[in-house]
Each structure stands twice: as structure tokens, then as C-alpha cells.
Fold this sequence. Notes:
The complex is a heterodimer of chains A (about 110) and B (about 120).
Chain A lengths: L3 E3 L2 E5 L4 E6 L6 E7 L6 E7 L4 E3 L4 E5 L4 E6 L8 E8 L5 E3 L3 E6 L1
Parallel strand pairs in A: 2-11
Antiparallel strand pairs in A: 1-3, 3-8, 4-5, 4-9, 5-6, 7-8, 9-10, 9-11
Chain B lengths: L3 E4 L2 E4 L5 E7 L5 E7 L5 E9 L2 E4 L6 E3 L9 E3 L8 E8 L10 E2 L3 E5 L1
Parallel strand pairs in B: 2-11
Antiparallel strand pairs in B: 1-3, 3-8, 4-5, 4-9, 5-6, 7-8, 9-10, 9-11
Amino acid sequence: QQPVQSPQxxxxxxxxxxxxxxxxxxxxxxxxxxRQKHGEAPVFLMILLKGGEQKGHEKISASFNEKxxxxxxxxxxxxxxxxxxxxxxxxxxxxxxxxxxGTTVTVRA
Amino acid sequence: DGGITQxxxxxFRKEGQNVTxxxxxxxNHDAMYWYRQDPGQGLRLIYYSQIVNDFQKGDIAExxxxxxxKKESFPLTVTSAQKNPTAFYLCASSVExxxxxxxxxxxxxxxxxxx
Lengths: 109, 115
């Protein structure tokens, strides 16, 4: 089952903050976050692992609530380069990732 | 530089034709994946392989086939049985699969269209 992302889209001005949420109905072992620019490959941002370990990006942070099976990605002091579609991927005990439908972020000057 | 190379970038298929999408990686990764992306949707897993000579069906394997004869290569064939093949296809790899605790690295994709 695909995780559910919200919101579907968000428009920001440079310097503003945003939060993207990802929730699953299944128990999770990990949550991945990727950003994709139009027509390009998704780029890895970070992984949050069950038990609290986090690997990834310096300027973008995220949280993982294992009990609620939810993750949130925090875009702080957004830059123009943050524009793109953000996908969460949830890792299950069957070794596969399921990706959400994506959240489109537009940052304007 | 290490990475994943997908070819061709654009591909057109005629009715009843099989086409093969190439994916090569020089990252020395054991696990490789094929995803399909439709407009406004997330990535859906077609096939994945954890090791050479072994592969597993993903969530939407019908109408597709793969092989993994070499560690570096994981080609995807879109068969004539796939009635709606128009999509953006992404290949990815990771060090290992291990319950999804390793990042996946993606190629630049192949855009497949029907003639």
C-alpha cells in the first residue's frame, strides 16, 4: 500500500518554511525522502530508520514517529533550489519501498 | 564517476512490439530496481533484484520481464502484453536491499511512448 502524502502542493516565498507529511497504514522499518526536478531522476535526501538513526541531508530535516507510522519533512528557510516534487518511500519488512504520490513544492523569489 | 546509466532516453513502441530498456550501474551495488512513474503519481515497483541471477516481481510486474545475468546490468523488457506502456521508467540501485535502510540511486530515466 502506498503511503499518503500531504499536502499535494505548496507554494512558498524564499525564506519561508514548510512541512510535508507522509503516513502509512503499515508498520514501517524506514522512511526515505527524495526530491525530483521535472523530467529528472529522483535524488536521495535522507533516510530515517526505526530506532532513531537518521542518514542524509544537512539543510533539510525530518522526523519519524514509529508508533503513528508517520514522517514529516521540514523545509526551513527555503531556497529557490528547493523547488521540485518530494516523495516519501516507506520501507517494509518485505524489503520493498512503497512511494507516495508526491508533494510539489514551488519556491518563488 | 560512479552512477547509473539508462538508455535510450526516449523510446517509441509500435503495437505488438517488445522493447528493451537498458540499465547499467558501476556503483558495485548488489540490489537493482525498476520503477514506473505516471504523471501525478508516485513510483511503482515493477521488478527488483537482490543478487545476480535472482529477481522478484514488484507490485505491477504483469507485461514486463527482466534478467540479471551480470551485477552491473538489469535490463527491462516491456512486452506486447503490457497494454498501457506509456510512462517514465526509472532504474535504481542500492548497496543492498535490507528492509530499505539503504538509499536508492536513480538513473535519468527512459520515457516510453506508443506510436
